[in-house]
Amino acid sequence: MIVNFYERYQPKEQLGFMEDALLADFLSTDGKYTNLLKKHWKQSLGIEELLFTPSATAALELAVQLLALAPGDEVIIPSYTFPSAANAVMKCGGTPVLCDVDLMTKNISLEAAASKITKRTKAIIPTHYAGISCNMDQLMTLAGDHQLGVIEDAAQAVHSLYADKPLGTIGDFGAYSFHHTKNFSCGEGGAFLCKDPSYMDQGEIIRDNGTNKAQFYKQKLSDYSWQCAGSNYMMSGACAALLYAQLLDYEVITEKRKAVFDAYHEILTASAQQLEGKVSLMNVPGYSTPNYHIYYINCNDSETRDALRNGLLADGIDVRTHFIPLHLSDFGRAMGYSAMDLPNCFSVYATLLRLPIHTEMTRTDCEIVTDFLMKRVREIE
Ligand SMILES: Cc1ncc(COP(=O)(O)O)c(C=O)c1O
After folding, report:
1. What confidence tens digit (pLDDT) does each residue in 240-272 have?
2. In the CATH hierarchy, which fold is given to the domain comprising 250-379?
3. 86 in ligand 1 pocket by Cβ < 6 Å?
């Protein structure tokens, strides 16, 4: 490839931190580097209470378990997302109700969500797609009017804001991902956030196989035992050390990604005539300050998208489509959904194309990508 889709940022402190963690630290969870991570969040975002997990998936499962769903309880989830939230609901005995998205942001449509609320609805799990915020004031009002819980799937939205509020901290619970492909990564990793700190003790119990071991370690108990159903949702000290090195540089990482995002936007906006109505640009609502996780273009139809995708891949530019909406998947269809039940999700699935974006890209790389893109657009009849 001439331009890779993703390259991991390599902070200079990471090997030193890793060695320190291996030689000196307790290598399971909640050692030196976890404490340093907590200090980072406190200083940068004002978050004190969070639990580090092996993934966003684990954090979502933990949050959904705290909802205490009864069989048949429903949770509204956008269909244009990763399956983790829907899996978490099903694992806890609930029913995921798939919902359409807004065409501009690709985030859950609040009108569509409102129309899906029934007596059995217990919560909404919005995804902040591409690190761009849902309209959280409107979403929280809708949830409040119907006494629904809100779990923010902020897997893609670490260090993104809604107005001046960090995503993941606005709903009742939030989930972050530090997977290899995310802005801040440690291979596999995640975090669980909750607004009401009184849930934290129970969260710690669920995270530690349903035991009150955390209380025992804090010397509040003389021994620990099994309290409820749980799992092992803990991040290792080695991952915490890698993640800490990344997060120390979060402003550098965000600035570098912003430079790529802004360069694409500037070049493509100036070339709007050449895009000839075949491609339109992504739109960031005024209330959202993204973390520049994804830069995508909207193609006018699936034939255009596929021609651009195939052409650019042949040129050595690693472009990618994204989610197959849950309702279009084999499992979603087996649940009884058909493609046009959620037409906006279908349209986004068929027309969205992601361009490469990572910290190692230069302005010249952006020009190479956009030059090839324009060439491929001109070829389309
Ligand atoms: C919106 C969304 N939710 C959840 C996940 C799962 O994250 P993890 O791999 O950390 O479990 C992803 C991963 O790509 C995602 O994009």
Report:
1. 999 999 999 999 999 999 999 999 999 999 998
2. Aspartate Aminotransferase, domain 1 (3.90.1150)
3. no
